[in-house]
């Protein structure tokens, strides 16, 4: 995964990702990205850069996010930010491929 200019605030972002594009996509999904949202996008990008993105599980990513944001309410806090799912919607906005099982059309996940 290529790294953008570290001054951009997203040192682990995919090379084809931009904050502007993420804001546009978020707007289409009814979200206005604030600092709180961007903090999770950074966390997702960093996690993916440090782990083999094709091999991590939804459970591992869920647990990592829950731990990272524990002081703010963990996964419940993230669902308030990303009603389409902190992993499914978060990965989309972060320019990452969601792990297998993050989008379960039969269980009501938002695509």
Question: What class do helices, strands and sheet pairing give?
Answer: mainly alpha
Per DSSP E runs of 2 or more residues, the count of β-strands stands at 0
Distance between the termini: 24 Å
Instruction: Give the SSE string.
Output: HHHHH
Identify low-pLDDT runs: 1-7, 106-111
Our estimate of the beta-strand percent is under 5%
* Anisotropy-based shape: globular
Characterize the biggest β-sheet.
Answer: none
Share in helix: 40-55%
Could you tell me the radius of gyration in angstroms?
Answer: 13 Å
Counting H and I runs of at least 4 residues, what is the number of helices? 5
Mean pLDDT: 84
Helix/strand layout:
Blueprint lengths: L18 H10 L6 H16 L7 H11 L5 H8 L6 H7 L17
Helix pairs in contact: 2-3, 2-5, 3-4
What does this structure look like?
The longest helix has 16 residues, at 35-50. The chain contains 5 helices and no strands. It has helices at 19-28, 35-50, 58-68, 74-81, 88-94. By secondary structure, the chain is mainly alpha-helical. The relative contact order is 0.16. The chain has a domain at 19-94.
How would you summarize this macromolecular structure in one to three sentences?
This protein has 111 residues and is an all-alpha fold. 47% of the residues lie in helices and 0% in strands.
Label this structure with key terms.
111 residues, disordered N terminus, 47% helix, disordered C terminus, 5 helices, mainly alpha
């Amino acid at each position: 995964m290529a790294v953008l200019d570290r001054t951009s605030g997203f040192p682990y972002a995919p090379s084809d990702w931009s904050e502007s594009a993420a804001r546009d996509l978020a707007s289409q999904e009814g979200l206005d990205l604030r600092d709180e949202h961007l903090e999770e996008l950074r966390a997702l990008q960093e996690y993916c850069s440090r782990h083999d993105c094709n091999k991590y599980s939804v459970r591992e990513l869920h647990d990592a996010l829950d731990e990272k944001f524990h002081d703010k309410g963990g996964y419940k806090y993230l669902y308030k930010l990303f009603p389409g799912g902190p992993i499914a919607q978060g990965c989309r906005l972060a320019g990452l491929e969601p792990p297998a099982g993050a989008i379960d059309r039969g269980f009501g996940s938002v695509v």
